[in-house]
Amino acid sequence: DTEVTQTPKHLVMGMTNKKSLKCEQHMGHRAMYWYKQKAKKPPELMFVYSYEKLSINESVPSRFSPECPNSSLLNLHLHALQPEDSALYLCASSQLLYGQGGSDTQYFGPGTRLTVL
Amino acid sequence: GDSVTQMEGPVTLSEEAFLTINCTYTATGYPSLFWYVQYPGEGLQLLLKATKADDKGSNKGFEATYRKETTSFHLEKGSVQVSDSAVYFCALSDPEGAQKLVFGQGTRLTINP
Question: Nearest to residue A21, comparing CAs of A108, A111, A86?
Fold first, then answer.
């Protein structure tokens, strides 16, 4: 089973709202990722968690706040977003600890389509 | 740094045509190579992968061979179907480094009946 689930599938929010995106995997993977994908572009890495610890923050604005409550769950808290933050937000997971080295494969969820009004 | 270059799209073919999507890479080490597919309105799905030179990845009739001498990982399918219409991303990760995925720009494929 290589399933990563994400909720909600679609989200519309105003610039003053606070919302959260959720991601879950039950593959025993040790690393989890958040990506942002704009239309007709490849995904851009935002954050990486290894064993519930933040390993990478790719200079993401503080209005995006990640959280990893346990090794199977990953949240992305959203606050005071801008219209240009509208995008598809993808979660992924992989077996190895980030930076551990070795051949690894990332498995992606279906994404959350976010629209900021 | 590492990079991936894909053939520019969009690519439009008729059903049952032969497909090739070119992908070349630049990497200092010996990367693992991947093809991901993204159907309309969906996330990325792993299509196939190869982890060392001369490995052939295959899935759903698609194939790609890791060619170290030409630093290429071209995606091929002998007979495409309308359901293959999607965006295809070539990607690499460096096993010696932090396993960060480096994506190509993506190739949009449309198959007409």
Answer: A111
Token representation of residue B103: 């994506």
pLDDT of residue A79: 95
What are the distances in angstroms from CA A10 to CA A37, A115, B5? 14, 8, 31
* Four-residue CA torsion sign, B41, A93, B61, B22: positive
C-alpha–C-alpha distance, residues B35 and B50, integer Å: 9
Pairing between strand B107-112 and B11-14? parallel
Helix (H) or strand (E) holding B111: strand B107-112
Q: What's at B104, amino acid-wise?
A: G
DSSP A27-66: S--SEEEEEEE-TTS--EEEEEEETTEEEEE-S--TTEEE
The minimal CB distance from B106 to the residues A42, A92, A109 is found for A42
Q: What mean pLDDT do residues B33-62 have?
A: 96
Contacts of B86 in chain A (CB under 8 A): none
On chain B, the residues whose CB falls within 8 A of the CB of A41 are: 105-106
**Confidence check: pLDDT of B5 > 70:** yes
In the DSSP assignment, the letter for residue B108 is E
Residues of B in contact with A110 (CB under 8 A): 42-43
H or E element at residue B69: none
Q: How far apart are the first and last CA of chain A?
A: 37
